[in-house]
């Protein structure tokens, strides 16, 4: 009986300590990034700094810019806006799982090469893409206020070439508790 009581007290203490970073009124600042090799000759990298505010315990809303570069035959430049909501579930004092839902508005400027039998043209093109998706992630707290994150997410967009995108993002967050 005594062992069960001590175990219950330790579990409740760990849960309370784990959720201190994600209390209502707190906010977080950080970001994530990803990189992929789209083909054997192209490399794409995207970073997205963000800021979020906890409207309720464990529930945050936020957003930030999207910045990216794709290299290959010609460089493409990517810019946009990311809006997200997250819900955290504490597993231990240093590990929290979270679910995220996000929407992105992305502008891309790239050059396209058209080859003809005798000549070739280089055409600059601009495109706007809207995406909506979600994912599951884990936040590992290296200190009480700093976490390293991994997020596996799915995005659906309105682009004709690739509608379904799976991404593994890595990042960090700094949590500022309410005063």
Itemize the secondary structure elements and their pairings.
Layout: H1 2-18, E1 27-39, E2 42-56, E3 59-71, E4 76-90, E5 95-115, E6 120-141, E7 146-157, E8 164-176
Antiparallel strand pairs: 1-2, 1-8, 2-3, 3-4, 4-5, 5-6, 6-7, 7-8
Walk me through what this model shows:
The protein is mainly beta and 179 residues long. 9% of the residues lie in helices and 69% in strands. An eight-stranded antiparallel barrel has the order 1-2-3-4-5-6-7-8. Residues 8-18 have low confidence and may be disordered.
Features:
8 strands; 179 residues
How would you briefly describe this protein structure?
This protein has 179 residues and is mainly beta. The protein is 9% helix and 69% strand.
- Strand elements, count: 8
Rg of Cα set: 21 Å
- The share of residues in extended strands comes to over 45%
Oligomerization: single chain
Q: What gap, in angstroms, lies between the N and C termini? A: 39 Å
**How does the major sheet shape up?**
8 strands, antiparallel, barrel
Mean residue pLDDT = 82
């Amino acid at each position: 009986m005594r062992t069960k009581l001590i175990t219950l007290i330790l579990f409740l203490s760990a849960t309370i300590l784990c959720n201190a970073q994600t209390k209502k009124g707190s906010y977080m600042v950080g970001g994530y990034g990803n990189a992929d090799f789209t083909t054997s000759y192209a490399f794409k990298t995207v970073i997205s700094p963000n800021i979020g505010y906890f409207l309720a315990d464990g529930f945050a809303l936020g957003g930030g810019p999207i910045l990216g570069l794709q290299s290959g035959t010609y460089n493409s430049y990517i810019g946009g806006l990311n809006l997200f909501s997250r819900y955290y579930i504490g597993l231990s004092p240093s590990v929290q799982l979270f679910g995220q839902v996000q929407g992105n508005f992305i502008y891309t400027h790239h050059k396209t090469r058209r080859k003809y039998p005798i000549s070739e043209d280089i055409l600059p093109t601009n495109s706007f893409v809207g995406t909506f998706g979600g994912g599951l992630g884990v936040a590992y707290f290296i200190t009480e206020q700093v976490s390293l994150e991994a997020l596996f997410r799915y995005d659906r967009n309105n682009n004709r070439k690739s509608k379904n995108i799976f991404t593994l993002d890595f990042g960090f967050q700094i949590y500022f508790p309410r005063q």
